[in-house]
Specification:
Number of strands of chain B: 11
Oligomer: heterodimer
Distance between the termini of chain A: 34 Å
Largest sheet of chain B: 6 strands, mixed
Largest interface: A-B, 25 and 22 residues
Radius of gyration of chain A: 13 Å
Radius of gyration of chain B: 13 Å
Strand content of chain B: over 45%
């Protein structure tokens, strides 16, 4: 039973395309997050979503948008992909603001 | 501006000995600290945490120490086992904000 799952695990696409990464958690948590791990291995928060309240890291381009169809899902949509978007994206969920549980990651490669 | 720093990119320790991973932070608003372990091609896995009102938390072979005045925390693993070889991330939380702030990670290698 996977607690936080992401699909796809790998995503290779051309510059300019629009793509989505799906995230689902079966832990009943109220808050979900998206993180980006760049080539320098830094894990940085992109979004947090709690009970329909979205908090956005101001450094995230508006080409990135999270969509939550229900409490268990927080999908990440990326428009007009750029080379610099290549990274590993991690979804996480949390019952509160401290301990977070991470998905396995999605490696995005933009060609 | 790195608010959480792990200054050792890698650390090699002999099996059975103690592994000590260090982490420094600059933001005095952080009130909760966590350690995550990460294997290649997997997501970070929560290991242990500590609240800023404590100076030590222990869970089996893992102990986290917090020195608030020095803005420093460390993770002790004893005895070290081969399965402990992984990248360890220090993370911090400001309960007034959302999301964790991560360090860059330390790659721990346990030598047989």
């Amino acid at each position: 039973d996977t607690a936080v799952s992401q699909t796809p695990k790998y995503l290779v696409t051309q510059m300019g395309n629009d793509k989505s990464i799906k995230c689902e958690q079966n832990l009943g948590h109220d808050t979900m997050y998206w993180y980006k791990q760049d080539s320098k291995k830094f894990l940085k928060i992109m979004f947090s979503y709690n009970n329909k309240e979205l908090i956005i890291n101001e450094t995230v381009p508006n080409r990135f948008s999270p969509k939550s169809p229900d409490k268990a899902h927080l999908n990440l949509h990326i428009n007009s992909l750029e080379l610099g978007d290549s990274a590993v994206y991690f979804c996480a969920s949390s019952p509160r603001t401290d301990t977070q549980y991470f998905g396995p990651g999605t490696r995005l490669t933009v060609l | 501006d790195q608010q959480v720093k792990q200054n050792s990119p890698s650390l090699s320790v002999q099996e059975g000995r103690i592994s000590i991973l260090n982490c420094d932070y600059t933001n005095s608003m952080f009130d909760y600290f966590l350690w995550y372990k990460k294997y290649p091609a997997e997501g970070p896995t929560f290991l242990i945490s500590i609240s800023s009102i404590k100076d030590k938390n222990e869970d089996g072979r893992f102990t986290v120490f917090l020195n608030k005045s020095a803005k420093h925390l460390s993770l002790h693993i004893v005895p070290s086992q081969p399965g402990d070889s992984a990248v360890y991330f220090c993370a911090a939380s400001d309960s007034g904000a959302d999301g964790l702030t991560f360090g860059k990670g330390t790659h721990l290698i346990i030598q047989p």
